[in-house]
TrEMBL record:
GO MF annotations in UniProt: 4 iron, 4 sulfur cluster binding; DNA binding; DNA-directed DNA polymerase activity; nucleotide binding; zinc ion binding
Domain DNA-directed DNA polymerase family B exonuclease: start-end pairs: 348-548
InterPro entries to which the protein is assigned, alphabetical: DNA-dir_DNA_pol_B, DNA-dir_DNA_pol_B_CS, DNA-dir_DNA_pol_B_exonuc, DNA-dir_DNA_pol_B_multi_dom, DNA/RNA_pol_sf, DNA_pol_B_thumb, DNA_pol_palm_dom_sf, PolZ_Rev3
Enzyme class: transferase
The C4-type zinc-finger of DNA polymerase delta domain, residue ranges: 1107-1176
Family indicated by similarity: Belongs to the DNA polymerase type-B family.
Reported cofactor(s): [4Fe-4S] cluster
Protein name, entry field: DNA polymerase
DNA-directed DNA polymerase family B multifunctional domain boundaries: 615-1063
Catalytic reactions of this protein: DNA(n) + a 2'-deoxyribonucleoside 5'-triphosphate = DNA(n+1) + diphosphate
Length: 1200
């Protein structure tokens, strides 16, 4: 705002010659000369009490005048300019330096005054409405919030000291010449004598004359009446034609449009008609029917007119009289002028998919395609053998395979050895003959054919004993893969748990299926891994099916076929389709090994086992306390310590924790000024190290010291002698919770030693990350390692305070860590709030982090202040407690505790911000994808434009798509975890539980697994029907055309509440936006196929009565209005294009499925994770109308 420079922009140096001064004197009357000379002589003898001082010099032939132009008050305004012209003996030229009496205000003084008056020198853009009609007045906490509109037309005029430039010139002229009655030209001539022409400020372009402004207004009015220039007539014809083309894509043709365009075209000269080259020849996209219409009309409407169509001629519109004809100047209709005159045409997008932000990756993948196994350096080879297995069992109709009834027809396996350079074996053991699979024989697959199921099991057991794998893995091993083999083995009289184990003396288990079903899959001597459960901790997804995991991890689309279809292929009498089933399972069993290789699953787990000193499977199955205890016990043995093992009763009698972490309630609102985020680096571990908090260094509470008897200490009793206490009196550290610890000079605790090693190792890993920033895959590996070390360090505090499930809890140690961390954060907050030079305040604090508001600061200044705060707070605390400056948010919304969102800047030179959210719906998975997409884009529009009218327009557009009923079902699908039937209270109304009960009634094997995410949607129903009755599976919605999504529920109960949690902080309610929208529901044409189906809802009895061609309501029962019946050519074109569009869309979707499946036949994929499935269902419903349209062709068109 201000700059410290010798000459500021407020000072103008004016240099002129002596002759100019004399000429100016000669132009004045003699009386004025004498008066001016006397006044000047009086000024020479005056003191510094006057405004100007004069210094004479006889060496320079020039006159230098310094004038400070400041919009000051009236007194200083009257003392602006004073000139002196005199001569001395022996010199013909006089040099006068004119100076201000008062020096200009310095920048430091201005900044100091701004700070004292609490005025910021930087004002960030606040939210506004660009459309004043969108302004709302909302009451929040008994206060009305009112956002003003900010278009240019409604801005207040700038208030200046003078009403105009001419008045300022007259006032200055009065002070200089004493004459204020002269006209502007005379004043200008007078000023030219004082100030040379070279020093006058001139505009870059000349202002328009009154004649030009008058002609401009005339052209503007004519443009409104005639809709543009001469080319506007041709553009209107093009627009009408393109509108008809766009309407015909939807099956709607406006007869009036055709007639008006024809009349316009006939009224034009041949040269003015649209050129064929203007026509858009681009082909349509892959999905180009109603859901993905062509954009040719938009591009044509927005394309600028050709220069050849603009002539200096008289424009005559058919609707205008000759008196309104105006001779247009072609210069007025250049591209930039046309943009000013024309009403801006908003780009119309008729896509029925939710408009979301552009994803960071091409396919919106949740994980990068980086092979972690390739960048990991194996110091030692693990020499672990992994065996992946998938099975194919015959199913009955639509039921899933049941091991009690359905036999296993084939076992598919993949033998993998780590290191991966060893030989791999992919094979099949199946019931059948070699002649049945000629296509598969050409592939490098080991195939073993058997005659019956028992022989298949015996061959498989023999191979497993021969290979002796360490790890048995399957994608879903509870109902399929290994679990199905175990259950089926019991039916056949085989105990596979004993046959496949490495320990032969295993007690034979009961062959009851119920016992096997409730028993965890364990094989003595081998590790059994259920892959999909482990992948839940690797990537956050809505669904953890094999197809979705392959897409996001390996970036490949995998088809999913129903059990009925796989059985039909396998049992086909010609054996020509069996290879499709084999290929389906080979993709799955190979994909399992590819997934664990891509994620370096074996290597990472082995390294963690070495670090923690526990077994491979314990890394996957045990919790964090087990890991902490393993490391701690190894260090305690070296120091001759023995860990305490209290009983459950002793833990129950332990004192309850008293200290809580410091969590400030944030000031909930939108912050346009920078928000500095600072975080203590591993606060709790650093506190333990800095203050030597440990089981072995704690002397108990201060209130108990000095007593000869024993006193409670955690779960046990402790006795500290008075003699020992006196020796340690000067070596004690008292925590804020009143617990005494000895200093490091007396004894270094076990926990500080352990944590110091972990944090040093983590710093080493982070240093390696800085050195290899260009290697993305290595970055992921190192980041996972440092995150694991950080986790084990942070949960050490939890081990000391776990009074319910912990093995060795000690409330004194736990309270001391929490209270000291709270004190550290509170002191840091006070330091920030009490330091005046920063002019910042803390608006939110949470355990080990704080959000600092820097009002009136730029992003660059915020980074400097953040680093300074981090250094000051770090120096005020003992090592290794360190406050780390993380990032800057600008802008940012703080909702509540642990819920905030903003644009993040990690470095000062970062130009493009990163969207980051914590705790809100954009990063949560308990809603449908539409909520995340709409909320994220709405916030991004708000952060980038600050224009709430733009946000409102976007949100209303998405609401209209949902109301129409042709929205993508995938965007409206919920997915909640299923906790098992025993995990819910009796009578619980939970969608996942309700669907599971329905599925179990028809198929006992269809119950979802515990922790599996069950997809469901909410459909429309009768008024008053309970919501639980409206819960349906996505498969039901896709198969039953009578069902439709409940748009009222989705908008009012699912989408609007998250939006209002953000926008109500600005005083902008979202619910009125929806209430004011029109309710437009898409109605399909009558269908012969639908008439044959059983009608279950009242909506099935309704059909559209609009004309198929022009979409106008018709009273006849012919399906086409009388106007269209009279124009058979138009009717035929419309119906033909409608049929063509449906069939073309079907063909293009089939091409996509063919590319994914790899064959042109049998593309019956049922994967809910593929968006093409929903598009395919939509096209099928459109094609149901084909029979009705063909019947209209037969009835009304003789040509057909």
């Amino acid at each position: 705002m201000f700059e410290d420079k010798p000459t500021s922009c407020n000072t103008v140096d004016v240099v002129g010659s002596g002759s100019t001064s004399s000429a100016f004197s000669n132009s004045l009357p003699e009386a004025n000369k004498m008066e001016g000379r006397a006044e000047n002589e009086h000024m020479i003898s005056s003191s510094e009490s006057y405004l100007f001082t004069q210094n004479k010099s006889y060496d320079s032939p020039t006159i230098v005048a310094k004038q400070t132009l400041l919009p000051l008050s009236g007194e200083l305004e009257k003392q602006i300019i004073s000139a002196k012209s005199s001569s001395t003996e022996g010199s013909s030229v006089v040099t006068s330096y004119i100076k201000l009496k008062c020096k200009p205000i310095s920048r430091a003084l201005v900044v100091e005054e701004l700070i004292n008056t609490d005025v910021t020198n930087i004002l960030s853009q606040e939210p506004f409405y660009s459309n004043f009609k969108d302004i709302t007045r909302t009451e929040i906490t008994n206060k009305f919030v009112h956002l003003e509109a900010a278009p240019v037309a409604l801005l207040e005029e700038h208030r200046c000291l003078f009403s105009g430039l001419s008045e300022w010139r007259q006032r200055v002229c009065l002070e200089v010449t004493g004459d204020a009655t002269r006209n502007v030209n005379d004043i200008m001539e007078s000023f030219q004598h004082i100030f040379p022409k070279s020093n006058f400020i001139k505009p870059i372009a000349k202002p328009p004359t009154s004649k030009s402004v008058t002609r401009w207004l005339e052209r503007k009015e004519a443009f409104k009446r005639n809709a543009g220039t001469r080319s506007s007539v041709s553009s209107r014809v093009e627009q009408k034609i393109l509108e008809n083309e766009q309407c015909s894509q939807k099956g709607i043709v406006d007869v009036k449009c055709f007639e008006e365009s024809s009349a316009l075209e006939r009224s034009m000269k041949p040269d003015d008609r649209p050129s064929p080259t203007r026509k858009n020849k681009s082909t349509r996209s892959s999905f180009d029917s109603d859901m993905f219409p062509s954009s040719s009309s938009r591009e044509s409407n927005q394309s600028p007119p050709n220069k050849d169509s603009i002539h200096e001629a008289e424009i005559t519109h058919p609707d205008c009289s000759k008196s309104s004809q105006i001779d247009f100047n072609p210069d007025l209709f250049k591209s930039f002028i046309r943009k000013q005159l024309e009403t801006p045409k908003r780009r119309i997008c008729d896509s029925y998919a939710i408009d979301a932000m552009t994803p960071d990756t091409t396919g919106d993948y949740q994980m990068g395609l980086d092979n972690l196994n390739e960048v990991t350096s194996h110091v030692e080879n693990y020499y672990l053998t992994v065996l992946a297995v998938e099975i194919h069992a015959i199913s009955r109709a639509l039921l899933k395979p049941d091991p009690a009834y359905d036999e296993v027809k084939a076992i598919f396996y993949y033998l993998y050895t780590c290191p991966p350079e060893e030989d791999r074996k992919v094979g099949i053991i199946l019931i059948g003959q070699e002649s049945e699979l000629p296509e598969v024989r050409t592939k490098p697959i080991q195939m073993h054919f058997v005659s019956n199921e028992k022989e298949l099991f015996s061959i498989f057991i023999e191979n497993v004993r021969q290979w002796d794998p360490d790890i048995l893995i399957g994608y879903e091993i509870e109902t399929l893969s290994w679990g199905y083999l175990l259950e089926r083995g019991y039916v056949l009289g085989l105990n596979l748990n004993q046959e496949l184990s490495r320990i032969t003396e295993v007690e034979k288990r009961n062959s009851s299926r119920d016992e096997v079903k409730n028993t965890q899959l364990q094989m003595p001597g081998r590790i059994v891994i259920n892959l999909w459960r482990l992948l839940r901790h690797e990537v956050n997804l809505q669904s953890y099916t094999f197809e979705n995991i392959m897409y996001h991890v390996l970036h490949e689309r995998i088809p999913l076929h129903s059990w009925k279809l796989l059985t039909c292929w396998w049992e086909h009498r010609t054996h020509l389709y069996k290879w499709m089933t084999v290929e389906h399972y080979l993709i799955r069993v190979t994909g399992i090994i590819r997934l664990i290789e891509q994620l370096d699953f074996i290597g990472r787990t082995s390294e963690m086992a070495r670090l923690f000193g526990i077994q491979f499977y314990e890394v996957l199955s045990r919790g964090s306390q087990f890991r902490v205890e393993s490391i701690m016990l190894r260090l305690s043995r070296l120091n001759n310590f023995v860990a305490v093992s209290p009983s459950i009763k002793q833990r129950a009698h332990m004192r309850a924790p008293e200290s809580l972490p410091l969590i400030l309630e944030p000031e909930s609102r939108l912050y346009t000024d920078p928000i500095i985020v600072l975080d203590f680096q591993s606060l709790y571990p650093s506190v333990i190290i800095a203050y030597n908090y440990c089981f072995s260094t704690c002397l108990g509470r201060v209130e108990h010291l000095g007593v000869s008897d024993s006193f409670p200490f955690g779960c046990i009793d402790l006795n500290v002698s008075i003699r020992s206490l006196k020796k340690l009196q000067q070596k004690l550290t008292i925590s804020p919770s009143g617990v005494a610890f000895v200093d490091k000079s007396i004894r270094c605790g076990i926990l500080p030693k352990m944590l110091q090693e972990i944090l040093d190792t983590r710093l080493m890993v982070k240093q390696s990350m800085k050195e290899y920033k260009s290697n993305a895959a290595l970055q992921r590996v190192l980041h996972a390692r440092q995150l694991g070390l950080k986790l084990i360090a942070n949960v050490t505090y939890g081990y000391t305070a776990a009074n319910f499930s912990g093995r060795m809890p000690c409330v004194e140690v736990g309270d001391s860590v929490v209270s000291k961390g709270r004190e550290t954060l509170q002191k840091a907050i006070e330091t920030v709030n009490n330091t005046s030079k920063w002019q910042c305040r803390v608006v939110y604090g949470d355990t080990d982090s704080m959000f600092v508001l820097a009002p009136g600061k730029t992003k660059q200044e915020a980074f400097e202040i953040g680093k300074e705060i981090a250094n000051v707070v770090t120096n005020n605390n003992p090592t290794p407690v360190k406050l780390k400056f993380e990032k800057v948010y600008q802008p940012c919304i703080l909702q509540t505790k642990k819920r905030y969102v903003g644009y993040m800047y990690e470095t000062a030179d970062q130009d493009k911000p990163i969207y980051e959210a914590k705790g809100i719906e954009t990063v949560r998975r308990d809603g449908c994808p539409a909520v995340s997409k709409i909320l994220k884009k709405s916030l991004c529009l708000l952060f980038e434009t600050k224009d709430l009218s733009v946000v409102k327009e976007y949100v209303e557009k998405q609401f209209s798509k949902i109301i129409s009923g042709r929205i993508s079902v995938q965007d409206m699908t919920f997915a909640k975890e299923y906790r098992g039937q025993a995990g819910y209270k009796p009578g619980a109304c939970v969608p996942a539980l309700s669907l599971a009960r329905q599925w179990v009634l028809t198929d006992p094997r269809a119950e979802p697994r515990v922790s599996e995410r069950v997809p469901y949607v909410i459909v429309s129903g009768a008024p008053g029907l309970p919501l639980i009755k409206l819960v349906k599976s996505p498969y039901e919605l896709l198969q039953d055309s009578s069902l439709r999504l409940n748009s009222e529920y989705y908008i009012t109960r699912v989408i609007i509440p998250p939006l209002e949690r953000c926008f109500l902080l600005l005083g902008t309610p979202v619910l009125p936006w929806y209430k004011n929208l029109p309710r437009k529901l898409h109605v399909y044409l009558p269908s012969v196929l639908n008439e044959r189906k059983k009608k279950s809802t009242i909506s099935q009895y309704f059909a559209s009565v609009n004309c198929v061609c022009c979409n106008q309501m018709t009273q006849n029962n012919k399906g086409v209005c009388d106007a269209c019946l009279n124009q058979t050519q138009l009717l035929g074109t419309c119906l033909y294009y409608k049929i063509q569009a449906w069939q073309r869309s079907q063909d293009q979707v089939n091409k996509v499925c063919t590319t994914c499946v790899g064959r042109s036949t049998s593309n019956d994929c049922i994967s809910l994770d593929c968006p093409v499935l929903y598009r395919k269902t939509q096209i099928t419903r459109d094609l149901d109308q084909l029979s009705y349209v063909l019947s209209l062709c037969d009835s009304h068109l003789a040509l057909f």
